[in-house]
Amino acid sequence: MKTFFMVKPDGVRRNIIGDVVNRAEKEGFVITKMKMMQISTELAEMHYAEHAEKPFFNDLVSFITSGPVVAMEVEGDNAVLAIRELMGATNPAEAEPGTIRGDLGSKLEENVVHGSDSEESAQRELGLFFN
Fold first, then answer.
1. Phi, psi angles (nearest 5°) of residue 116
2. From CA 62, how far away is CA 45, in angstroms rounded?
3. Is residue 109 over pLDDT 90?
C-alpha cells in the first residue's frame, strides 16, 4: 500500500528532513518517490480543498506555501494508518513521545509533517504531487 507523506516548511527550515525520513525507513517503509518543491497557492488550495470553508483555510495555505516542502510517496504494510501513527497527534502537545510530532513538533500550526488520512486521500494527494 502507498500513501502520501510530506515534511512541511517548518521541518525543512529546521533541517530535520533526514530525521523524519530515517524514522519512516526504520519502521520498514520504502520511499518510492521524493522531491523537494515549493508548493504554489493553486496546489495548496487543491491539497486543502476539504478545509476551504473553514476559518483556518487561508492560514493553512499561507503556511504550506511559506517555504519548500519534501513530498514523498511511501510504500509499506497498512501505510496510511501506520504513517499516521508514526506522525502522532496533529497537536504536538498531545502527541505521544516517540512520534515525529511528539519529539519534533513545536506547535499546532507548525507540526513538521503531513500524511494522508485515508486511502482515498492518499490517491488524491499522490496524484496532485506526483502526476
1. -55, 145
2. 10
3. no
- Predicted TM-score (pTM) of the model is 0.95
Domain count, the chain: 1
For Cα atoms 102, 107, 111, give the angle at the middle one, nearest 5 degrees.
65
> Are the CB atoms for 13 and 67 separated by under 8 Å?
yes
| 29/95 Cα distance (integer angstroms) | 21
Residues tagged active-site: 114
Kindly report the CATH number assigned to the domain that includes residue 110. Answer: 3.30.70.141
Would the CA dihedral through 58, 21, 67, 101 be positive or negative? positive
pLDDT in tens, 32-60: 999 999 999 999 999 999 999 999 999 99
Determine contact, residues 17/112, Cβ cutoff 8 Å. no
CB 74 within 8 A of CB 24: yes
